[in-house]
Amino acid sequence: MNPYIKANKEAWNLLAKDHYFEFKRRYQTRDNLLSPDIIKELGDISDKTLIHLQCNTGSDTLSLARLGAKVSGVDLAPDNIVYANKLFEDFKTEGHFYEADLMEFGNHHQEKYDVVFTSEGAIGWLPDFDQWAKTIVQLLNKDGFFYLYEIHPFFLMFDEDLFPKEELDIRYPYFGRQVDKSETIGGYAAEERIGESYYWMYSISDVVNALIKAGLKIEFIHEFDHLCYNAGNMNDIGVGSYEFKKWHGKMPLMFSIKATLS
Ligand SMILES: C[S@@+](CC[C@H](N)C(=O)[O-])C[C@H]1O[C@@H](n2cnc3c(N)ncnc32)[C@H](O)[C@@H]1O
């Protein structure tokens, strides 16, 4: 296993228990935790088979199941899989979870799905988008689709420590897929933990071109001015979406892509 991915596996494992309890708590007051953008753009997925890539502890996978899909999930961290199974047991829902590095998953997983789904803070943990896109193609049924709802790389360029002060300064280079080492992990749904982790910056063209090169046809790409977590001093606009007070409507914070095989 790539040593960076090995470090990420250990780091993500540290958060699994906390994420399980936090997401379970959120399900006490809400039936579905998905962003309304996702629900709208996915359309009717009832009775479709769906695989959730980088599913964490299965929280969004559970919401996808509640939209009627027959769900599976794959994630790198073994404890995420343990807690995803536990969450599904708690809510008496059927789902299948696989522990795997997505960079290798396609080499041994033969099943195909109507929907391949990824969202919110996932793809920056992957070093090789060509391998990622090849895996998506491999997992898709002939008439299936891939859906991505992800943090916009324009937003990711800025120094996160300055957002609470409503200041902007570029900290991370947009170009070049450079890896950034961090001594901590998490903080978006549970307390941040000490854990060495590695994240690769990406550009919009990195993502789109990898999908095209693998043979996918882009049906749409959309950009949004709200974010899937509170980066500091943001307005909560409901169901896990936040807007900057100062820059609302002025900069892209999330993007989505739908792609098909033909
Ligand atoms: C920010 S979380 C994604 C959260 C997601 N939005 C959800 O549904 O909860 C990123 C996830 O990617 C997983 N991950 C990181 N690198 C991976 C890899 N190489 N293969 C598979 N999963 C990976 C981590 O274990 C973590 O659960």
What does it look like?
The chain is of the alpha/beta class and 262 residues long. The model has no long low-confidence stretch (mean pLDDT 95). 30% of the residues lie in helices and 28% in strands. Helix 2 (16-26) runs parallel beside helix 5 (78-90) and helix 7 (129-139) crosses helix 9 (204-213). It has a seven-stranded mixed β-sheet with strand order 3-2-1-4-5-11-8, sandwiched between helices. It has a two-stranded antiparallel sheet with strand order 6-7. The radius of gyration is 17 Å and the shape is globular. The chain has helices at 3-13, 16-26, 36-42, 59-66, 78-90, 102-105, 129-139, 153-156, 204-213, and strands at 49-53, 70-75, 95-99, 113-119, 140-151, 179-185, 193-200, 217-224, 234-238, 241-244, 254-260. It starts with a helix and ends with a strand. S-adenosylmethionine (SAM) binds at residues 5, 8, 12, 54-56, 59-60, 75-77, 80, 101-103, 119-122, 125-126. S-adenosylmethionine is lined by residues 5, 8, 12, 54-56, 59-60, 75-77, 80, 101-103, 119-122, 125-126.
